[in-house]
């Protein structure tokens, strides 16, 4: 199965796009040697970020030891992060934004000859978040944040391990306690909550949590298209 086609779109000018090649990483920065050279945009570093394809993980964005950091959906990228359709990549805290978009192949985009034409779908005029109905016209932006469910689990694990040293003279108790503590840290530390954040034009922010990141992303992409930030936005 061939890798999915994708591209980067400059959010401030959607006419400027950069196709992504699974066989060749896309280097981004101010230096002329980059495949995507942003010499006129600040605060982009000379060698800022890389977008590449991994057969095991899909499309990834990686920080390239930039001066001001690379941000994916508002969260700083430490090494590499997986990209989903519609994700926003910001180069620096206040730098330019690149939109990651998957592209449907031409064969998949052409419907079967015998299939009836689908009825036109009208964009929604409102969205519901935590029981509140919000008009689409009031929504400024939508983003997904993935945060640890138990942010202090490492501290608790460390305290438990240090306290367990008191049982070191009793190996029958000491080692099972260490195994249970390590397993609890791995299990609880890997759990994340995925939060859809809507920023309204009056400055308020509404949040809704999802157990599944893909579901949160689907809601985010639907809202972005409704407010004109989807693939067909100008």
Characteristic key phrases:
234 residues; alpha+beta; 5-stranded mixed β-sheet; 16 strands
Explain this structure.
The chain is α+β, with helices and mostly antiparallel strands. The chain is 21% helix and 34% strand. The protein contains four helices and 16 strands. The chain has helices at residues 106-109, 153-164, 171-189, 213-226; strands at 5-10, 17-20, 26-29, 36-37, 49-54, 58-63, 70-72, 75-76, 80-82, 88-91, 97-103, 126-129, 132-135, 139-148, 192-200, 205-210. The strands form four sheets. Strands 2-1-11-10-7-8 form a six-stranded antiparallel β-sheet, with no helix packed on it. α2 runs antiparallel to α3 (171-189). The chain is globular, with a radius of gyration of 22 Å. It starts with a strand and ends in an 8-residue tail after the last helix. 21% of the residues are buried. The mean pLDDT is 82.
Question: TL;DR of this structure?
Answer:
By secondary structure, this protein is an alpha+beta fold. 21% of the residues lie in helices and 34% in strands. The strands form four sheets. The protein has a six-stranded antiparallel beta sheet, with no helix packed on it.
Outline the secondary-structure elements.
Elements: E1 5-10, E2 17-20, E3 26-29, E4 36-37, E5 49-54, E6 58-63, E7 70-72, E8 75-76, E9 80-82, E10 88-91, E11 97-103, H1 106-109, E12 126-129, E13 132-135, E14 139-148, H2 153-164, H3 171-189, E15 192-200, E16 205-210, H4 213-226
Parallel strand pairs: 3-4
Antiparallel strand pairs: 1-2, 1-11, 3-5, 5-6, 6-9, 7-8, 7-10, 10-11, 12-13, 14-15, 15-16
Helix pairs in contact: 2-3
């Amino acid at each position: 199965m061939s890798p999915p086609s994708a591209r980067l779109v400059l959010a401030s000018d959607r006419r400027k796009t950069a196709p992504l090649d699974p066989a060749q990483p896309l280097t981004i920065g101010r230096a002329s040697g980059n495949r995507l050279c942003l010499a006129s945009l600040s605060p982009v570093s000379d060698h800022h970020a890389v977008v590449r394809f991994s057969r095991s993980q899909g499309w990834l964005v990686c920080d390239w030891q930039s001066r001001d950091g690379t941000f994916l959906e508002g969260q700083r990228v430490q090494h590499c992060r997986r990209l989903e359709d519609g994700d926003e990549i910001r180069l620096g805290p206040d730098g330019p934004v690149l939109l990651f978009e998957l592209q449907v192949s031409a064969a998949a985009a052409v419907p079967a000859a015998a299939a009836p034409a689908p009825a036109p779908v009208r964009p929604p005029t409102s969205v519901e978040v935590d029981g509140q109905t919000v008009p689409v016209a009031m929504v400024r932006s939508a983003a997904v944040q993935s945060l640890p469910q138990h942010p202090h689990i490492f501290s608790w694990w460390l305290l438990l391990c240090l306290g367990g040293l008191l049982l070191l003279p009793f190996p029958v108790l000491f080692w099972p306690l260490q195994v249970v503590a390590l397993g609890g840290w791995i299990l609880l530390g890997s759990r994340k909550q995925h939060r859809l954040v809507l920023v309204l034009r009056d400055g308020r922010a509404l949040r809704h949590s999802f157990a599944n990141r893909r579901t949160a992303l689907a809601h985010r992409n639907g809202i972005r298209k409704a407010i004109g930030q989807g693939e067909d936005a100008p």
